[in-house]
Amino acid sequence: MSTPNKNLNENEPQNLNSVAEVEDAKLAQIHEKPKSQGRIVLERFVSHKPAMISAVILVVITVFAFSSIGWGPIPGWWGQNFYHAGAVVDGGKPTLSLVPAWLGGEGIRIGEHPFGQDSVGKDYFALVMNGTQKSIIIGVVVGLVATVLGTVIGAVAGYFRGWVDEILMRITDLFIVIPLLVLAAVLGKMAGASTGSIIILALVLGLVTWTGLARLVRGEILSLREREYVAAAQAMGSKTSRVIFKHLIPNTMGVIIVNATFAIAGAILLESSLSYLGFGVKAPESSLGLLISQYQNAFTTRPYLFWWPGMIIVTIALSVNFLGDGLRDAFDPRQIGKKRRRRAGLFALPTRKEKP
Amino acid sequence: MSHAAPMNEQGSDGYALSFTDLNVVFATGGADVHAVKGLSLTVRPGQVVALVGESGSGKSVTSTAAMGLLPENANVSGAAKVGNVNVVGLDEGKLRKMRATDIAMVFQEPMTALNPVLTIERQLTEALELHDIAYGKEATDRAIELLDMVGIPDPAKRVKQYPHQFSGGQRQRIVIAMAISCDPKVIIADEPTTALDVTVQAEILDLLRELKDRLNTGILLITHNMGVVADMADEVAVMFQGNLVETGTVEQVLLRPEHPYTQRLLAAVPRLSAPAVTTATPPHSSETAPPGRELVLEAKDLVLEYDMRGKIFRAVEEVSFDIAKGEVLGIVGESGSGKSTIAKAVLGLLPVASGSLSVQGHDLPKLSPKEARAVRKRIGVIFQDPAASLNPRFPIGDCITEPMVVHKVGSKAGRIKRAEELLDAVKLPRNVINRYPHELSGGQRQRVCIARALTLNPELLIADEPTSALDVSVQAVVLEMLQDLQRDFNFACLFVSHDLAVVDMLADAVVVMQSGRAVEQGMVDTVLHAPTHDYTKRLLAAAPVPDPHEQAVRRAAWRLLNSTK
Asked: Which residues of A116-155 are buried (b: 16+ CB within 10 A; e: fewer)?
C-alpha cells in the first residue's frame, strides 16, 4: 500500500471479524476520562481566542468598577467619591497620561483626577466607575430575568402546544409590536419614580426583553420533543416538569446561553439609551448613558467627558458580543471546521493532495 | 492487494468503472481516518457489482470517490476510472461534464433526493439541457419517455406534477429515471431500496434489473442487505473496516464464503426458519403458558386516531390481540400500517379512541394519571433509533437508572449497583457508567436502552423496531441478547418490526397489519409458514433471502403472485 499513513490505524483492534466486536474492543480501549457535552463545549470555548480576551477584559472592567469606588457599604480603594463636588483643577482636564516624557509626552502618571472633573468639580473617574457598575448590574440582572422568563415561556409553549402555545405566543407578539424603547421608558419611569433603585429598573427591563428568546426556545423544544428520549421519559411515567426541566431545557442550553449574552449586551445599550433620554437612572446616581447625555454639549470643548463613558459602553458591549460569538462557535463545532479550512487555503496549504 | 480479484490485472479496457489501489484518508480534528485502504474493483457494462459492508466499512466513501464528491478534507490516492478517465484529481469542470453522461447516482432516500418546489418535468429535463442533449419540447418528450420507461403510469400528465404527489416507490423510480436520463456508462446505486418497504423494494429491484439489461449500463450496487445482493448482483465485493476482504461471483461469496468476516456476516442475517424445524421445537409459550394464561396486555377492538389539526386520521382500526407472561407477540407490517401506533398507545403516548387496552387487567384509558403512572412502572420500552433515544446530556448510569429516579425506587448506592448489574446483563463494561451516549456506537447504545427498559423488572417490554437502525452483525448480537433476557426475566414482549425473519426468530405469535387493520394473526408457525391472506403471502415473497438460487425461485414466485393480483 502506498499510503503515507500506514500506521495510522495501528491502535485499532486487529483480527476481529465482526463490527460488534470491533466496537466493543474500541470501547474497552478508551482510557481517557469520559467527557460530558458541557466539558467538550468548555474546551472549545477556552480555545476561542477573541472570546477569551473579551472575557478577561470584562472581568478586569468589572473588578475595577466594583473595587475602585466600592459597592454599597464596602469601601473602595479610590479615595474620592462621585457625589462630592470639589474645586475644578486645571479646567477639569484629565490628569492621566500614558505617553512617556522621552516621547514628548508628560510622563506616565495617574494624578488626582485621571479622567478629569465635571463642571462642578466631581471626580469623573468615580462617576464613570459608578456608571459602569450600573451598566454591569443592569446587564446581568436583565440577562438573568429575560433568560429565565423567555426559557420558561418558550418551553411551556413548545411542549404543550395547542391553546397554551397560542395564548403565550400571542402575548409574546403583543410585547414585540410595542416599540421596546417606549415600553421600557414608561415602565422604567414608573419604577424609577417609586424607588429609584437600579435593581428595580433592571427587573422591569427584563420583563420586556424576553420575547426573542421565548420564540427561539419554543422552536427548539418543538423539534426536541419529538425525539425518542423524550418519548422514553414520558413512557416511563416522568412528570411533565421533569421532562421539561431535565430532558428538554438542558438540551437547548446552547441557544439559551448564546442568546443570554446577546441579551446582556442589548440591555446595557437599552439602559444607556433610557438614561440618555432621561427615563432611566437619575442624578445623583450616575450611569454611562446619563453622563453622555449630561455632557453632550461639552463634546467640542471637553471631549473627555463624552469619550470615557462612551468608550466603556462600547468596550463592554463588544466584549459581551465576542463572548457570545465564542459560545456559539463552541456549541456549534461546524463553524470552527469552516474556519480551519479557510485558514488552510489562506496559507496556500494544499487541502487535498492527489496523486495522478 | 493480495485479495484483489485476478481480473483486475487486465487493465481498464472495457470496464465501465474500475478502482485501482484506491486509498481515502480523512483529515479530522483528531487522528486521521483511513476510510478506504487500497481498494481494487471493476464493473463491466451490463454487470451488477455489489459492494457489501456494514457501517464504517468505507463502501459509501468508495462510491463518493468515483463521483468526485468527497469533502475537502479527504486525501485520495490511487485511481478511480469511469470508462477510461481517471476521476481522481480531475478538475472540477471536466468532472461536472462527466456526471450524468458517464456516471450517475441513485440515492438512498427518495423523500429528500427530489426538490419539492420543482415539477418532475423541470428536474428531469435539467440534466438533458445541461449536457446539451435536448431542449424544450424535445426534452419534455424525452422526460415523458423516461417516466414511461421506469413504469410511472400516465407519464404525459404526471410529468407536470410535484414530488409530493408521488409515493415513495414512485419517487425512487423518478430518481432512477433521472439517473438514466443521459445514458450513463455506470450507475452507482447507494442503498437504493433501504428506505423502502419490502414489496416496493422488490419492484424497484425488478426495474433496475430490467433497465441494466436494456441499456447495458454497469451498476455498482452499495448495500448492507444480503438478500438484495442475492437478488441483483453478478459479482460481490465485501468490505470491512476499509479493506476489501473478499470478491467473487455471487454464488461464490454467498454460498461458499472464504473470509471469516463474510462467513460471520452471512450467519448473522436473520432468515425465516424452515417450517419443519419449528414444528419440531414448539414455541416456549405453549409450555410455559397453560390454557389459563396470565394475560399481561390485552387489546379488544382497539381504535387509535391521530388528530391532525381538526382532521381525524384513523391509524388503527379494531385490532384485538393479547400477550401472556413470557410470550412475545410480533406486529409486522409496512410503513403506515399502524404497527408503531399501537406501541405508542400502550406506552400512553397516544389516547385510545375506542375499544379497550388493558395492562394486567387495568384498562389504560380509564385510569387516573396517578394510577397510570403506577402501571407505567411495569412497562419497559426500546425505541428504534439508538442515537435519539438516550438524552445526550445524561451519563449512561443516569440513563439506566432514570426509571428508578422517576418512580423513587432505591437509594443512590442501590441505583448504581442496579445499573452495574444491568450493564453486566447487556455485556457492556461497568466503567461505561460514567460515559456519555456520544462515546458509544449505535449497537452499544441500543444495549443501554435495553438495560434501561429492564431497570424496574418490567412485566411488559415494548420494542419498537429495536434493530432496524443497526448493522446486520450488531442486530444479531442485540436480538440474541433480547432473546436471552426474555428467557431469564420471563417478561411479556410486544415486538414491532417490518422484518419477518426477525419476528420469526423472536416471537411466538404474530399480527400482520395493513393500513391499520390486522389482516392475519395467529401463531408464528401458522402465519409465517402457511399464510392464508394474500398480503402476508406478498410480504413473505417480497423479502429477499441471501441465497442466489433460492432467491431466483422466490423472485419467480413473487412475479406470479403479482400477476395474479
From this structure: bbbeeebbbbbbbbbbbbbbbbbbbbbbbbbbebbbbbbb
**Cα separations (Å) of B341 from B45, B198, B355?**
46, 20, 15
**What order do you get walking across the sheet with B218-223 strand by strand?**
B103-106, B186-190, B218-223, B48-52, B235-240, B243-249
Least Cα separation, residue B207 to chain A (angstroms): 32
Residue B520 has pLDDT above 50, yes or no: yes
Is A2's pLDDT higher than 50?
no
Closest CB to A1: pick one of B37, B347, B381. Answer: B37
Cα–Cα distance measured from residue A2 to residue A10, given in angstroms and rounded to the nearest whole number: 16
Please give the Cα distance from A330 to A41 (Å, whole number): 5
Other beta carbons less than 10 A from residue A272's beta carbon = 28
**Best to test chain B binding among A18, A244, A247, A353 (most B CBs inside 10 Å):** A18
Residue B309 zone, left/alpha/beta (φ > 0; ψ -120 to 50; rest)? left
Q: Are B172 and B141 a contacting pair, CB within 8 Å? A: no
The 10 Å Cβ neighbour count of residue B360 is 15
Helices B442-454 and B412-425, packing angle to 10 deg = 130
Is A18 in contact with B261 (Cβ distance < 8 A)? Answer: yes
A103 vs B: CB within 8 A = no
Closest by alpha carbon to A314, among A84, A125, A61? A61
Q: What percent helix, strand, coil does chain A show, rounded to 5?
A: 65, 0, 30
Contacts (Cβ under 8 Å, ≥6 apart) of A197: A191
Contacts of B500 (CB under 8 A, 6+ apart): B272, B332, B528, B539, B540, B543
A97 burial level (CB within 10 Å; 0-12, 13-18, 19+): middle
- Whether residue B384 and residue A23 make contact (CB cut-off 8 A), yes or no, is no
State the smallest CA–CA distance between residue A238 and chain B in angstroms. Answer: 6
Contact B406 A22 (CB under 8 A): no
Q: What would the grid cell of residue A319 be?
A: 466584549
Q: Do B349 and A237 touch (CB under 8 A)?
A: no
φ, ψ (nearest 5 deg) of residue B37:
-115, 95
Residues 6 or more apart from A120 whose CB is under 8 A from it?
A85, A88
Interface ipTM above 0.90: no
CB-nearest partner of B25 from A3, A28, A337:
A3
Q: Are residues B207 and B174 in contact, defined by beta-carbon separation less than 8 angstroms?
A: no
Residue of A nearest to B38 (CA): A1
Beta bridge partners, B221, equal B50, B189
Residue A296 binned pLDDT confidence (cut-offs 50, 70, 90)? confident
Q: Which of B264, B340, B428, B467 to mutate to test the interface with A (most CBs of A within 10 A)?
A: B264
Q: Is A232 on the interface with B (CB under 8 A)?
A: yes
Q: Which three cell numbers stand for residue B394?
A: 445524561
- What mean pLDDT value characterizes chain A? 79
What are the pLDDT digits (tens) for B267-320?
Answer: 888 888 765 444 434 444 444 445 567 889 999 999 999 887 778 888 999 999
- Please report, for residues A38, A303, B336, B526, the alpha-carbon distance to residue B521 in angstroms, rounded to integers and kept in the order given: 49, 89, 18, 9
Do A2 and B390 count as a contact with CB atoms less than 8 A apart? no
Tell me what pLDDT residue B9 has: 38
CA A242 to CA B432: how far, in whole Å?
A: 24
Interacting residues of A300 by C-beta distance below 8 A, sequence separation 6+:
none
| Inter-chain residue contact A34 with B240, CB threshold 8 Å | no
Which of B31, B383, B476 lies closest to A228 in CB terms?
Answer: B383
